[in-house]
Amino acid sequence: MRGGRVFFKLRMSCASPARRQRGFTLLELLIVITVVGILASIAYPSYTDVVIRNNRAVARAAMSDIIARQESFYSQTKTYASNLKDLGFNEPTIYLRKDGGFSATSGKAAYLLRIQSGSANNRGFTVQAVPESGLLRNGDTDCGTLSITAQGVKSSQFNGEKCF
Question: For residue 56, which of 150, 149, 142, 151 has the smallest C-alpha distance?
């Protein structure tokens, strides 16, 4: 009988209130939240900057496509197109989505693409990528409207050629 009592006492001592605690303390949670907040405050501006630069790169690629279409149109008709519909797009002005696709509506658009005719004798044109208002609100105040002329002169609304 004694052996049974000793085993019972040992087993009870293992289940005493002095067993290991599980979980985190409030101080540990506050430290983790603070570290995550600091990392997020550093990473978020970098992320938005990369997104803005990517949108600009997509706009520059679309503008290059329009210029190539303009030159092809000119070689066939000896005149430049006055709108994007003449170049095979669905509308005279189109919206460029952030994924590089084109749309007739401004929903989820990054830029509005359009052509401005040059002189009265149609010897030139300017392709413009006008940022949608959401881009300017979200920090893309470095460049504004991007423009490329028929002669290849690149400019932006705020910083000249820096944005190319």
Answer: 142
pTM for the full predicted model: 0.71
Parent domain of 75: 38-163
Looking at the domain assignment, is residue 1 inside a domain? no
| Residue range 138-162, pLDDT digits in tens | 566 778 888 888 888 888 887 766 6
Q: Which helix (H) or strand (E) holds 103?
A: strand 102-103
Side chain identity, residue 39: L
83 is a domain residue: yes
Q: Are 126 and 152 in contact (CB under 8 A)?
A: no
Residue 2 lies in a domain: no
CA dihedral 81, 82, 88, 94 (to 10 degrees): 150
d(CA 74, CA 67): 10
> Which pLDDT score, from 0 to 100, does residue 49 have?
83
- DSSP assignment, residue 136? H
Q: How far apart are CA 53 and CA 111, in angstroms?
A: 13
Structural domains in the chain (count): 1
Q: Which residue, among 154, 114, 132, 143, has the nearest Cα to 53 in the 3D structure? A: 143
Query: Is residue 92 domain-resident?
Result: yes
Sign of CA dihedral 115, 140, 61, 104: negative
